[in-house]
Amino acid sequence: MRISKGALLVVIAVLVPFVVEFRTALSWFGIELSVLESLVLGGAVVLAIVLWAVWPPNGNAEAELSGPN
Amino acid sequence: MEVTRMSSTASRTYLDQFPAEAKVIKAAFWSSFMALAIGGLLGLVQALHRTDVLRFIDPADYYTVLTAHGVLLAITFTIFFLVGIFTWAVTTSLDRGVVDIRFTWAWYIMMVVGTILVGVSILGGVVDAIPTYADVLFTFYAPLQAHPAFYVGLVLFVVGSWLAGADWFRTWWAWRKENPDERIPLPTFMALTTTLFWYLCTLGVALSILVFLLPWSLGIVDSVNPLLTRTLFWYFGHAVVYFWLMPAYMMWYIMLPKLSGGKLFSDPLARVVFVLFLLLSTPVGIHHQYLDPGIAEGYKFIAMTNTMFLLLPSLLTAFTVVASMEHGARQRGGTGYLGWLKALPWRDPVFTGMALAGLMFAAAGFSGMINAGMNINYLVHNSWWVVGHFHLTVGTAVALTFMAAAYWFIPQVTGKALWSRQLALGQVLLWFVGMTFMSNAMHRSGLFGMPRRTAEPQYQGFNFEPAVGTVGEINAQVALGAVLLTVALAMFLLNMVLTSFNDDSDSLPANTYAGTLSGPEDSPAVLDNLKLWTAIAVVLVIVGYTLPLASIVDSGGLFGPDISGFQLAIETDPALVLESVREVMP
Ligand code: HEM
Ligand SMILES: [Cu+2]
Questions:
Q1: Looking at CA atoms only, how far is residue B397 from chain A in angstroms?
Q2: Per the UniProt record, which residue ranges are transmembrane (chain A) (predicted)?
Q3: What's the B421 CA to ligand 1 centre distance in angstroms?
Q4: Ligand 2: distance of its center to the CA of B484 in Å?
Q5: Nearest C-alpha to atom 35 of ligand 1 is from which residue?
Q6: What DSSP character marks residue B283?
Q7: B248: which strand partners?
Q8: In this complex, is the C-beta atom of A32 within 8 Å of any C-beta atom belonging to chain B?
Q9: Within the 1-30 window of chain A, which residues sit less than 8 Å (CB to CB) from chain B?
Q10: Any bridge partners for residue B266, and if so which?
Q11: Mapping DSSP to helix (H, G, I), strand (E, B) and coil, where does residue B266 land?
Q12: What spacing in Å lies between the alpha carbon of B212 and ligand 1's midpoint?
């Protein structure tokens, strides 16, 4: 883990308003995402963050930390 | 580490230092939590009813529920928590107990009695056995009329809070005799300046209740001037939002830097901010009345200008608090332009709750500026936008800061360790996420005119589109947000109850608050001249309100053009209730 589980949870929670507001803001530029599209988009970003967080820091599996948490 | 003051009492909890005061504070906190529990649950009932997800109350009772929600959360929950925190702040920072603990209990009990009267009066709207009614919403101005008990309860509650303020002043005076040459410690300074504008603004509402609303409800006078009672309410109604906010600001100033591992960036700046709030909180209330006929545009324009000045202390706060957090993070080894953010204690629910509450407050600042602009206000006035806005301010910036603070304070005043930090962290995050959904949908629908305070808005059978998406989506998002918020609320209360029964009392942090990088010695002595600032505040109020009030009385009369009042409570036929229950049951 690159960051603690608690911190990961915080990052994901803080992401929610960004996704929700991003969808709102985009519509003013004529891009209307449906609920499903927004969910998929949000889910993809969350997945990317989770992957980044659990990936061993330098690509070396042995270097993986047990994590401070 | 030198992050904290009061080294002489290091590693002692508040309970060890001030056992008698701790009891009153604990009682005040629990009164506040009870209001939060009931009020929050009613919020869910409302949200589900309005969005037609689940309707089990009679539409006429919606206003009873809404009144209880508004009063219990915006008045009871916030102010009980405030008196607890301020009592803590004054005694901790002066390092002395209150002058007479019996006096402290007296104002607390007075506030409880007031709350019970108010609560029962409202409840009478739905319980036939109770002969009261108070479906007047938390703004309670004419022509809506409540049972006299409601107004008497409000008066007791407010007078109780006045006595609480007197208690803090007495304690400070006693300390000043013992320490004649010292500056007022920052937390006490914050409590006292806040109390001063509370006195100033509640005078208006006391006048409105004692001279107009109560005699009118008792039948002593048979008419009132609605615009006058509205104006007197908003004279108090804007300042009260700062009354809720000041304890949250205090937490951001004196707790967040400590939790981040550093010190408050600037004590003088913090003092300036609180002085500005003392000066500007009250003479701006007319910005809630941009759409009221009967108040000339010029007065509204003055109120708008003052309001825009009020942005200044909030921007100063954002700067000082973020700078202090950055300082703390760098002390903890954080580096980089934004990389220091990673060094903050995000796993600590007290820190994270307060930081996220501050973040939402920043968002609320933007919608607030829109509300404050005289011309764009016409677009959003009385719409759900406004409800979305204040669930970010009082419903999150204040409520979430208080809940996060409780995770630190309840162990301090009970001597019991927090039951679960993980649950607490999950709780503050869930509140944040739930509020994102609910508030975003409220803003979006309000922008396109969806009204607030409406039990069953109808959007079927014609083409209506809110900003982005459909009405169905808006409803779903509000209902989802409301459910998440209610779950978060339950998690909070569970944690508080289990903490109270916790046997574990090890490793409790000491009762301390943040030290400062630039301390009181750097701030001009005139900042502590409370008499001067109060005098200026009074002058500003006179300037801001004399002419508008005079013209309202002049055109409508002191007791109005024969307004005999209106009781929202509608007699309901049980058969109708049954029918509506059947409608929602499959
Ligand atoms: C469980 C969390 C909550 C939910 C689900 C919720 C829901 C709602 C809803 C749906 C309304 C609008 C009703 C309407 O316009 O018809 C409302 C109004 C209101 N809420 Fe909340 N709320 C919650 C928490 C809070 C908190 C924590 C506060 C303050 C500390 C608060 C203060 C208010 C106030 C002052 C009103 C306006 C009442 C009025 O118009 O008279 N709410 N709430
Ligand atoms: Cu206001």
A1: 15
A2: 7-29, 35-55
A3: 27
A4: 28
A5: B70
A6: T
A7: none
A8: yes
A9: 3-4, 6-7, 9-10, 13-14, 16-17, 20-21, 23-24, 27
A10: B518
A11: strand
A12: 28
pTM, two decimals, is 0.92
d(Cα B529, Cα B184) in Å, to the nearest integer?
10
The length of chain B, given as a count of residues: 586
Please report where in the chains the tokens 């040459």 appear, as a residue.
B181
The identity of residue B12, as a single letter, is: R
What does the alpha-carbon distance between residue B258 and residue B265 come to, in Å, rounded to a whole number? 11
CA angle (B469, B474, B480) in 5-degree steps = 130
How far apart are alpha carbons B219 and B230 in whole angstroms?
Answer: 20
Environment class of B380 (CB within 10 Å of its CB; exposed 0-12, middle 13-18, buried 19+): buried
Atom number in ligand 1 closest to CA B482: 5
Cα angle for residues B583, B584, B586 (degrees, 5° grid): 95
Distances in whole angstroms, Cα of residue B443 to Cα of each of A57, B34, B52, B253, B368: 41, 29, 19, 29, 12
Does the beta-carbon distance from B363 to A69 stay under 8 Å? no
CB-based burial label for B295 (10 Å; 0-12, 13-18, 19+): buried
> For residues B186 and B253, is the Cβ–Cβ distance under 8 A?
yes
Polymer length of chain A: 69
Residue B40 Cβ inside 6 Å of ligand 1? The answer reads yes
**Residue A37 touches partner B, C-beta closer than 8 Å:** no
Q: Is the peptide bond before B349 cis (omega within 30 degrees of 0)?
A: no
Check CB contact under 8 Å for B440 and A16: no
The residue written with tokens 């950055």 in the block is B326
CB contact under 8 A, B429 and A27: no
CA dist A16 and B437 (Å) reads 9
CA distance B537 to B203: 14
Structure-token pair, residue B511: 């009762």
Q: ipTM value of the model?
A: 0.85
CATH of the domain spanning B21-584: 1.20.210.10
Q: Is the CB of B258 under 6 A from ligand 1?
A: no
